[in-house]
Amino acid sequence: MSRKPMTRPGGRSARVQEAVHAAVRELLGEVGRDALTVPMVAARAGVTPSTVYRRWGDLQELLSDVAVERLRPETDPADLGSLRDDLDAWAEQFLDEMASPSGRAYIRDALLGDPDGTNAGQCSAYAAEQIDTVLDRAARRGERVPDTELMLDDIVAPIMYRILFRPDGLNAAYARDLVSHALDRL
Amino acid sequence: MSRKPMTRPGGRSARVQEAVHAAVRELLGEVGRDALTVPMVAARAGVTPSTVYRRWGDLQELLSDVAVERLRPETDPADLGSLRDDLDAWAEQFLDEMASPSGRAYIRDALLGDPDGTNAGQCSAYAAEQIDTVLDRAARRGERVPDTELMLDDIVAPIMYRILFRPDGLNAAYARDLVSHALDRL
Fold first, then answer.
1. pLDDT higher than threshold 90 for residue B86
2. What does each C-alpha distance from A11 to A8, A14, A16, A23, A32 come to in angstroms?
3. How confident is the model at residue B8 (pLDDT cuts 50, 70, 90)?
4. Which of the 8 DSSP states describes residue B77?
5. ipTM computed for the complex
6. Are B107 and B164 in contact (CB under 8 A)?
7. Contact residues on chain A for B154, CB-CB shorter than 8 A
């Protein structure tokens, strides 16, 4: 089981988390993933290595937590006036971000240090929330909308599957083809 | 880069590979994944630990190779007389095997010790070959058939995505719904 608390910690605990995450982000840029060690992260964050081991278990679990933070969407999907346009734009951007070298590295990290699936589930929840926003907006416009779970199957799943297992042909035209087939459900 | 040879090795090399893979499979059953070590595997296989390190790099890469072997389909998809029936049966069986506890563990192992994506690509190639068999057979019957890559997107990708990121509702009805939506393409 994971050693991470289920809720966002407050006070000192939150400061330690922020300092350690920031140290990982900086050091990934400076020394790269292969050279990174827990003592190096702890020194940069101003905590003891045992603080890191106690909270995260090992380097892989820490990298997984940092990766999920980086995969959190920063803005709402764009509002372009129609369900198809909004889904096209969102799918293209999602594919772009996830298939980029840093996106691929974060997806891998998120999965690898995540024995109980909490962080993978969080990645999927981020995508579901973004799709919900697009669908809610379309419904308020009076458009017919499909189910969020089906949009995950039709748009998100093929993109993530190809990134992990079959990384060819990941471009904007592919994203739009997925959206077209998804909207055939209506 | 991977230290694995691109082709199946012959002679002594093949015997070492078989002995080491067999040792991993036995020890996974006896001591479990968390207790497994390279020296333990080497002793069981009758080779030196450095033989294992030289060939596989580390335990994770070895586990990845063993996992891909275990994920190789053992039989051709059943021939039930129609494209829909064949796809339904294949998708149900694929979901069953991949979503089982051992299937999930092998998928995870295959991805984790596979920095260059060779083993993940092999898993995807196995699924593509099985779908090709179903589609070729249907085409010979005179049925219209969709493209294999689209069947990977419609059937394989959602199953693998949910196993890794959103493990709910993985049952036979779900597999058949995926096949129905896939055949809407025709």
1. yes
2. 10, 5, 9, 18, 30
3. low
4. P
5. 0.91
6. yes
7. 154, 158, 181
Contact A153, A159 (CB under 8 A): no
Shortest CA distance from A162: residue in chain B: B157
**pLDDT tens-digit readout, A92-120:** 999 999 999 999 999 999 998 998 899 99
What pLDDT is attached to residue A9? 59
Chain A partners of B158 at a C-beta cutoff of 8 Å? 152-154, 157-158
DSSP string, B68-108: HHHHS--SPPP--SSHHHHHHHHHHHHHHHHHSHHHHHHHH
Provide the sign of the torsion angle of the four alpha carbons A153, A91, B144, B157, taken in this order. Answer: negative
Tens of pLDDT, residue by residue over B33-55, are 889 999 999 999 999 999 999 99
Pick the CATH number of B11-57 from 1.10.260.40, 1.10.357.10, 1.10.3720.10, 1.10.10.60: 1.10.10.60
**Nearest CA to CA, how far is B136 from chain A (Å)?**
22
Which residue numbers in chain A have pLDDT < 70? 1-9
CA angle B60, B65, B71 (to 5 degrees): 120
What is the fold of B74-183?
A: Tetracycline Repressor; domain 2 (1.10.357)
- Say yes or no: A141 contacts chain B, CB-CB below 8 A: no
- Residue ranges per structural domain of chain B: 11-57, 74-183
